[in-house]
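queue> pop job 88
queue> type: inverse folding (structure -> sequence)
queue> payload:
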């Protein structure tokens, strides 16, 4: 009887040990599975971060250049004996840097033209625009029709008689965008604008600027 009891107890012990061993192995497998899952999630997260960094932070865009806040100082015109004009105005040139790094640019020239002939220019001194920032440069512009004397066929007389003067302006400044202090990329900021001067109201309108 005692031997039978011993055998029964021994059988229970072996089954308990086997069950405990299986339970321990299952726990280890679940633990490894969790670790692998965490590693996979972390890897995916890292890939997403790197992709966002490459597409957003490391992507270099061309800075924007705009002419704004035009304040007319002098506007003198004549239609006879020859059509002429002399214009002086103050303005603000805005250089917008959309990048995640500073933009250093060289000296640029804004040219104002009438029917393709330069009637005035103004310098934009070299400078620096911080990351995601806009730099305002105040300029004083003097324009004259003196260079138009060589043109035989232009619409200046007709425009002045109608009380309007339309001019265009264009420029391009060249510089470099610096990223992470080690990488530099060449980028140019360009601007093309059309301005209309109303002679009666002495107002200036920007017809188009990009």
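queue> result:
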């Amino acid at each position: 009887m005692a031997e039978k009891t011993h055998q029964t107890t021994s059988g229970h012990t072996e089954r308990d040990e086997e069950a405990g061993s299986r339970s321990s192995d299952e726990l280890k497998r679940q633990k490894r599975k969790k670790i692998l899952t965490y590693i996979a999630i972390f890897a995916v997260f890292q890939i997403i971060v790197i992709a966002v960094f490459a597409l957003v932070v490391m992507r270099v865009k061309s800075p924007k250049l705009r002419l704004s806040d035009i304040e007319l100082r002098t506007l003198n015109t004549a239609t006879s004996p020859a059509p002429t004009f002399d214009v002086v105005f103050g303005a603000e040139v805005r250089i917008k840097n959309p990048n995640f790094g500073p933009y250093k640019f060289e000296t640029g020239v804004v040219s104002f033209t009438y029917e393709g002939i330069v009637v005035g220019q103004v310098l934009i001194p070299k400078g620096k625009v911080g990351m995601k920032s806009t730099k305002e440069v105040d300029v004083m512009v003097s324009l004259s029709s003196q260079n138009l004397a060589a043109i035989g066929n232009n619409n200046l007389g007709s425009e002045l008689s109608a009380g309007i003067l339309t001019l265009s302006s264009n420029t391009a400044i060249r510089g470099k965008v610096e990223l992470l202090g080690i990488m530099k990329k060449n980028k140019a900021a360009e601007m093309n604008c059309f301005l209309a001067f109303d002679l009666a109201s002495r107002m200036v309108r920007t017809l188009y600027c990009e």
